[in-house]
Recover the amino acids of this structure.
């Protein structure tokens, strides 16, 4: 462990970014300098059928690097009210979490108002908006920017056009784009492709419904194959300390937790232990 600087260079779709990505995103043990390199451009061709054409280009980006310091821990604020989310966000920040996630249930119930509320309450903490975007990738990037958040999510099983539009808009507006592989049939392959397109992070997601159907499995089932498939940063959605520690030792970089730890009798202690265990067991593969 310890601190080691390595160069992860996600490619950039479309035209080069022109705006500053803002202050470094913070956390943990290893520093990833995601200075951008070769540019697979993309174009959406009009006609009866939407087609995405990925074209290689050697045009470098004029955007400054997005500095990701791993491991990153993220708390999922999967609540129905802004007040509940703010209360748990305060507990999570005190426990040492790096990023705050506006969970999908909160967006569904309250729209984007909680985003601004959390951003204003915790201005030094990067806020992720978990839209689970399946369409309108660039639109959700713009919403994220307007509300003051730093990062948004797009589903890996969305169309290529949607993923590419989110990534391209993210580079232009200085918004980090995280690809959630929930529902993707071939997660390692999709992770590799999304990293080539320039996604900042990709994470493996064994959903709550899948967990209810088969509680013996988790996101770890895809981790080794995904780490073999891509050199880019890979994250995992987790259900507790045990799978998080296993993922940290294997080389995952990004760790997301919500329920059941947020529902623990003493959530501060449970979340603090989670952060300590992840960071104490993190093994950088970069």
């Amino acid at each position: 462990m310890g601190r080691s600087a390595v160069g992860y260079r996600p490619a950039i779709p479309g035209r080069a970014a022109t705006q500053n990505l803002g202050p470094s995103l913070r956390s943990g043990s290893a520093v990833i300098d995601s200075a951008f390199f070769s540019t697979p451009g993309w174009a959406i061709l009009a006609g009866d059928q939407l087609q995405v054409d990925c074209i290689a280009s050697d045009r470098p980006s004029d955007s400054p690097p997005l500095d990701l310091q791993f491991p990153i821990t993220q708390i999922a604020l999967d609540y129905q009210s802004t007040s509940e989310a703010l209360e748990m966000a305060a507990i999570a920040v005190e426990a040492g979490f790096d990023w705050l996630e506006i969970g999908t249930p909160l967006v569904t119930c309250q729209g984007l108002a909680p985003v601004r509320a959390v951003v204003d309450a915790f201005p030094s903490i990067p806020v992720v908006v978990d839209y689970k975007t399946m369409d309108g990738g660039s639109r959700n990037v713009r919403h994220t920017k307007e509300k003051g958040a730093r990062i948004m999510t797009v589903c890996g099983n969305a169309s290529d056009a949607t993923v590419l539009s989110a990534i391209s808009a993210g580079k232009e507006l200085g918004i980090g784009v995280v690809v959630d592989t929930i529902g993707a049939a071939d997660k390692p392959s999709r992770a590799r492709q999304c990293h080539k397109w320039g996604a900042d992070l990709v994470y493996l997601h064994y959903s709550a419904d899948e967990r209810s159907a088969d509680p013996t499995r988790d996101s770890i089932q895809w981790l080794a194959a995904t780490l073999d498939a891509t050199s880019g940063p890979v994250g995992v959605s987790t259900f507790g300390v045990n799978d998080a520690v296993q993922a940290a030792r294997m080389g995952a970089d990004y760790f997301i937790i919500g329920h059941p730890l947020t529902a623990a009798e003493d959530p501060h202690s449970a979340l603090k232990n989670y952060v300590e265990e992840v960071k104490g067991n993190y093994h950088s593969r970069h």
Remarks:
- The mean pLDDT is 82.
